Structures are given as C-alpha cells and as structure tokens.
Amino acid sequence: MTGRPVTVGIIEDHPVVVDGVTTWINADPLQRAVVVGSGADVDEVLAGPAGAADVLLLDLHLGETVVVDRVAELCTAGRRVVVYSAMDDPDTILAVLEAGASAFLSKHEAGGHCVDTIVAVATDRPYVTPSVAGALLSEAPHLSAQERTALLLWFQSMSKASVARRMGLSEATVRQYIDRARVKYAKLGRPAPTKTALLARAIEDGLIRADEIREYRSHAAE
C-alpha cells in the first residue's frame, strides 16, 4: 500500500449509506483510502472498476436478500472483506468472521472506525471494533508464555517468519503456537479463524492488552 491510497469497493443498496461512507473516506486528513466503485449487487460490483479494489465493504442485506453466504466465497477467492451491516448481533458477527471476513463494522458505530478498519485490513493488520469485541466475550483459554509472545509479535504486523527470527525459533514452531491458540478457542466453542477474530478474543479475555499492539519496527531499522 506504500505510496498510494487503499482502494475500496462498496457493495451497498442504500445510496445515502454509500454517500456517507464515501464522505468519511474523503474527509480523512491523511487521504489513506479512495472509493473506486459501488453498487447494490455483489457480482455487478466485482465486474466493474471495484472488482480489483484492495478492500470490499459489504452490506449483508442487499434488497430482499441476506448475502452472508457470499462472505466465504469472496474470502476464499482472496478478497479482503469488511462486513458493514446493521445486522450486528453476536451470532452474525461471529458467522462472518468465521467465514473469513477480515473485519466487521456495525452501522451503529461511529464513522471514525471506518477508515481505520479499511486501512488495517488492506495491510493485513487486525482491527477490533466495539461490536466485534462485544460479540467475543466468553470463557478464556490458557496460553503459555511462548504462545502469547508469538501471538503478540504476529499481531504487531510481523510475518510468521519475522516472529520466528525475533524469538529464535523455526517458522513451523511459530505457526504451531498460533494454531494451538486457535485450537484452544475452538475447543471452547469460540473459533477464531481470522487474525482479527483471534486478536479480539485475546484482548477481550485479557490475554493481550490493546496498548501492546504497536507498529512493528525491525531490528535492522533500529
């Protein structure tokens, strides 16, 4: 994303919502994102200029159709999806995160989260909105010190290979630590298949503090 704004495609059937989101994005003082297309139909938007957008902002209720099932399809195809919906009950939020959505934004949340979420998703960084955090409250698993360290470094935008170098471990071991944390959540009936979902659960459960998630600086840069 360096050197250019994040491109965004909006899939939404209410023009006033499209206008509102576009206004938030255009008002960002850092000009970090730009809307390149919008429409009320998933396939129509994908066939147009927004088909190659860095991030798709998807409403779940288009006309008379609820398109929750399209989330997994879009994510499997490699698209970064931010679900933006008034359907913000915990079951729906968890369902779209488990289907692969990079983030969930409730239409009842302040617009200040919108650009931050889009930019975070475009750069593969997790971003936890209040609606996601509220949906993920429940029993917490126990993480070992090594598992917690691996997760924390990974959440700080480090690749698994970079985490491995920083911890003096193999990349396979780091993957094992992250997968182990996911398995522990799954066993509690709280699956966290995406990076955002896993971070949200860890923060809400007090396993990781939000103020610990800082931008990664390499040893070489230091």
From TrEMBL:
Residues 7-122 form the Response regulatory domain. Pfam families: Response_reg, Sigma70_r4_2. Belongs to the sigma-70 factor family. ECF subfamily. The modification 4-aspartylphosphate is found at residue 59. This is Two component transcriptional regulator, LuxR family. Keywords: DNA-binding, Phosphoprotein, Sigma factor, Transcription, Transcription regulation. It comes from the Bacteria.
